[in-house]
Amino acid sequence: MEKLTIKAETKTINGEVNLTASKSESNRVLIIRALCEDYFPIHNLAAAKDTETMVNLLADKGTIKDVGPAGTTMRFLTAYYANTPGSWILTGSERMKNRPIAVLVDALKELGAKIEYLEKEGCPPMKIEGGNLKGGKICIDGSISSQYLSALIMIAPTLPGGLEMELTGKIASIPYLKMTLALIAEFGAKYTFEKNIIQIEEGKYKGKEFTVEADWSAASYWYQIAALAEEARITLKGLKEISLQGDSAIVEMYHSFGVESVFNGNQVTLKKLNQPSVKHFNYDFSDCPDVAQTLAATLSGLNIKGHFKGLESLRIKETDRIAAIKKELEKLGASIDILPNDEIQVNQGRLKAFDGSIETYDDHRVAMSIAPLCLKIDEIEIEEPNVVAKSYPDFWRDLAEKGLTSSK
Predict the structure, then answer these.
(1) When comparing pLDDT for 72 and 311, which is higher?
(2) Of 84, 109, 214, 218, which is the most exposed, with the fewest CB atoms less than 10 Å away?
(3) Side-chain-side CA neighbours of residue 298 (13 Å)
(4) Residues 204-242: pLDDT tens digits?
(5) Sheet holding 136-141, edge to edge
(6) How far apart are CA 359 and CA 381, in angstroms?
(7) Around Cβ 52, how many Cβ atoms within 10 Å?
(8) CA triplet 38, 40, 44: central angle to 5 degrees?
């Protein structure tokens, strides 16, 4: 097993970071381009492994599509290939074969899709007989994953008669849903979204050059570093003050921890101004679940109490992130309680050196959210450090350039 030890050579973090591009934007625009009759260039495409997988599978003429651990890719391609003439098999990693996809598959079947589960009911792998989808009205649970909804939204303009979706339950990760809607509109689609009903007209996508924004999820780890450092002045390039990405909510979150954000064009400078102004941090992460682990680690590092809700989707990510973050942070001396309804409580507890290693569960966000805690406990050993390639391949290199060095 490969392991990496990360150590803070300095507690003062300064400099510039060329952030990786947004995986969320990249993967959506790739699907839109595949559905568009006109090829168009995409600039600043994410270097993330998930995006590389999407590019390769869309270009591959074979009928067996193996997404590995890429959940977004699996969901988006399920809808895409259900709408693409041919016989297709979608499969993935062992974890992927246990990640549910029935909500999306059932919705596609209502539109005429022919999809068969090949192993476990409700999970990949699947055989898809693509093409011949029709538009119409469907009712779908919006509380489980916005990716199911986004997958349907992107194919909707290509369906005869368009698509009307009635969303039931509390809608998960609304900013990601709005990102998808904004992107289809960018390429000529017309839609309305009122109350819990999304209506998308039949039409053709119109190709145009597109530049992907930097990744706010990746930015969250630099906000965490700024909060945990003694002093910090970090400029993150490629980020917009008004962003489609829900994780841009970290700007306000980290203001509570003494980190100021100063925007100048397409970049933001983080400044550690003072000590945290809050003693108890409560937050509903329904709109930005991917940064919940980062915040849990931040609170643990700053010895601040917190209460998190809106974490339901974390149970079906690359791993059970709620269980994982509790187990791994508690190795370092943190105290976390898992409450009913998948809420968590971060208790006060001073971090301490740990003689063992941090398990990453094939989950990039476990590795990246815990690594900055080396600013508080000298050094941390991370198992399978290459998991960061899923979304931020240069993570360890970027940290090393700012004084958080790693060795194997």
Answers:
(1) 72
(2) 109
(3) 32
(4) 999 999 999 999 999 999 999 999 999 999 999 999 999
(5) 136-141, 163-168, 197-200, 191-194
(6) 9
(7) 18
(8) 160
* 319: pLDDT strictly greater than 80: no
Give the helix ranges, DSSP H, for 241-371.
250-255, 292-302, 321-331, 364-370
**Type of residue found at 210:** F
Q: What is the pLDDT of residues 188-206, one digit of tens each?
A: 999 999 999 999 999 999 9
The mean per-residue pLDDT over the stretch 339-345 comes to 89
- Indicate the residue type of 181: L
Residues 6+ apart with CB under 8 A from 182: 244
Q: How far apart, in whole angstroms, are the C-alpha atoms of residue 20 and residue 199?
A: 33
Contact at 8 Å (CB) between 3 and 357?
yes
Output b/e per residue, 236-257; b: 16+ Cβ within 10 A: bebbbeebbbbbbbbbebbbeb
Whether pLDDT at 62 is above 90:
yes
How far is residue 389's CA from residue 393's CA, in Å, rounded to a whole number? 4
User: 14-23, 222-231, 357-366: lowest mean pLDDT where?
Assistant: 357-366
Least confident of 36-50, 303-317, 330-344: 303-317
Q: How long is the chain? A: 408
Look at domain 23-211 and name its CATH class: alpha beta
Q: List residues with catalytic annotation.
A: 290
What is the C-alpha separation between 323 and 254, in angstroms, rounded? 24
161-196 confidence digits (pLDDT tens): 999 999 999 888 899 999 999 999 999 999 999 999
Q: What is 3-20+214-407's CATH number?
A: 3.65.10.10
Could you tell me where in the chain the CATH 3.65.10.10 domains are found? 3-20+214-407, 23-211
For residue 372 the two structure tokens come to 């900055």
User: Which tokens sit at 119?
Assistant: 């192993």
Q: Are 372 and 228 in contact (CB under 8 A)?
A: yes
Distance CA 322, CA 408 (A): 28
What per-residue string of b and e applies to 335-354 under the rule 16 or more CB within 10 Å gives b? Answer: ebeeeeebbbebeebebeeb
β partners of residue 163 = 136, 200
